Amino acid sequence: MSLYIRDESVDALAVQVQKLSKAPSKTEAVRRALQNELRRMQENVPLRERIRKIQENVKAIGPDDPNFDMKTFTDEMWDDA
């Protein structure tokens, strides 16, 4: 089955992708572009889900230590104490 592109701007994009990806044909360039776009969309994690994971990590770390001294900690890390 052949791929017919009637829109000149879409054809120009397909040619650009073909050249940059060194695809043997415009059809192969379009196939690769569509596969990459599908993969990107499937791997895209919604913002709500990313925030939920961050909140879970923060909760797992636990509450702040009110006696924690960042200056002392940094000095000890750099052997300045």
Automatic annotation (TrEMBL):
InterPro entries: VapB-like. Residues 62-81 are annotated as: Disordered. This is Rv0623 family protein transcription factor. It comes from Neorhizobium galegae bv. officinalis.
